[in-house]
Amino acid sequence: MSSSTDWPLWEVFVRSRRGLSHTHAGSLHAPDAEMALRNARDLYTRRSEGVSIWVVPSTQITASSPDEKDSFFEPAGDKPYRHPTFYEIPDGVKHL
Amino acid sequence: MAAVTADQKTQSTSGTAKATGTVAGTAGDPADAARLAAFDAAVAADDRIEPRDWMPEAYRATLVRQMAQHAHSEIIGMQPEANWITRAPSLRRKAILMAKVQDEAGHGLYLYSAAETLGTSREELLDKLHAGRQRYSSIFNYPTLTWADVGAIGWLVDGAAITNQVPLCRCSYGPYARAMVRICKEESFHQRQGYELLLALSRGTEAQHAMAQDAVDRWWWPSLMMFGPPDDASSHSEQSMAWKIKRHSNDELRQRFVDICVPQAEALGLTLPDPDIRWNEERGQHDFGAIDWTEFQEVLKGNGPCNEQRITQRRKAHEEGAWVRDAAAAYAAKHTTPPVQQTQHAQQAPHVEETA
């Protein structure tokens, strides 16, 4: 009999109510997707925190590297003109 | 509860197989009647419909049509402005314009992926656009003749789009509403850069001022047409309002836009090309002149100044980009698990065990 530590890790995403995106709630171990879903319900929505759950095997997530944070996101850093506040609009002009 | 991998997978089957024919309430299946009642109750309660919820087939079809047209408009809309990137008058203006055109591509992608939650595919939607079986906004069939057009598009075309899109942030379909929230935040930059550009021209030399005025004169009426036909001639409006896909009628939104633009034009020192615009004290709104709907119909039919050019350019860009897509796929195929197969295998036991 295999120990529960052999079970894969699943990332859990919960939609708190209709109209909102699923957001990452945490993770858990489970032997398969069905069990992961049920465990996620018990672990992360005991107080009705959600109306929908996604579980994704953690190994299936490709994440950007923290070491590359600077070079990876740097290109957006010197483009303040992508923000509306960059533009001078005369006082009193509304709805812009 | 069945475990499923993603929204996209299940909804396409549940929707097409089960929902057909229930809209009119004629289908005999009592389970479908119950589902329709639940759907109607959710819409009535201002709840959002999410991808895995049951929905009437006509609701799904309406959303696919509208979201596809919206997505197509974003990517076709890149063309008239991209026309001026190489000739922007300064590095500052060039960087801004490139950022804006890049945003339009991004908006297209948000909307195509939101449409894919309804069980269609981006490829299928693009095919329909290229074959002329789905539309994009008629506004993009007008040419950008001068640099001032970039400003007029930002102020008027993006301004009209924002007026249309803000209520869509509360659309009954969750993924569409969420895409619109993101898009509306970004549109604000588009509109302000256009207004600032026009203001610079309007306060510039006499020739620059005249160029700004000419651009506004040409873009004003087509911008008003962006809200669609008048309410009494709008074929899809009533049902879309009942489903809360649309929140306001075409004429309501058009009126709101006119009321917003009149003082903005004054602040620019430019006039709007409509002698009938005047404040109506009784209504608390501006009266404005009659729109030439024959022109609108002609552009829709394909007879606008740039229809042929826009779709030809789109097809060409797609075909000329084929080698990039092929190369990316060939590169991915050389590696052990291509991304496409990864998702399909995600639930299978052998794959799961590898992670232990």
UniProtKB/TrEMBL annotation, chain A:
<dbReference type="InterPro" id="IPR009359">
    <property type="entry name" value="PaaB"/>
</dbReference>
<protein>
    <submittedName>
        <fullName>1,2-phenylacetyl-CoA epoxidase subunit B</fullName>
        <ecNumber>1.14.13.149</ecNumber>
    </submittedName>
</protein>
<keyword id="KW-0560">Oxidoreductase</keyword>
<dbReference type="GO" id="GO:0097266">
    <property type="term" value="F:phenylacetyl-CoA 1,2-epoxidase activity"/>
</dbReference>
<dbReference type="InterPro" id="IPR038693">
    <property type="entry name" value="PaaB_sf"/>
</dbReference>
<dbReference type="Pfam" id="PF06243">
    <property type="entry name" value="PaaB"/>
</dbReference>
TrEMBL record, chain B:
<dbReference type="InterPro" id="IPR007814">
    <property type="entry name" value="PaaA_PaaC"/>
</dbReference>
<dbReference type="GO" id="GO:0010124">
    <property type="term" value="P:phenylacetate catabolic process"/>
</dbReference>
<feature type="compositionally biased region" description="Polar residues">
    <location>
        <begin position="338"/>
        <end position="347"/>
    </location>
</feature>
<dbReference type="InterPro" id="IPR011881">
    <property type="entry name" value="PaaA"/>
</dbReference>
<protein>
    <submittedName>
        <fullName>Phenylacetate-CoA oxygenase subunit PaaA</fullName>
    </submittedName>
</protein>
<feature type="region of interest" description="Disordered">
    <location>
        <begin position="331"/>
        <end position="356"/>
    </location>
</feature>
<feature type="compositionally biased region" description="Low complexity">
    <location>
        <begin position="15"/>
        <end position="25"/>
    </location>
</feature>
<feature type="region of interest" description="Disordered">
    <location>
        <begin position="1"/>
        <end position="25"/>
    </location>
</feature>
<dbReference type="InterPro" id="IPR052703">
    <property type="entry name" value="Aromatic_CoA_ox/epox"/>
</dbReference>
<dbReference type="GO" id="GO:0005829">
    <property type="term" value="C:cytosol"/>
</dbReference>
<dbReference type="InterPro" id="IPR009078">
    <property type="entry name" value="Ferritin-like_SF"/>
</dbReference>
<dbReference type="InterPro" id="IPR012347">
    <property type="entry name" value="Ferritin-like"/>
</dbReference>
<dbReference type="GO" id="GO:0097266">
    <property type="term" value="F:phenylacetyl-CoA 1,2-epoxidase activity"/>
</dbReference>
<dbReference type="Pfam" id="PF05138">
    <property type="entry name" value="PaaA_PaaC"/>
</dbReference>
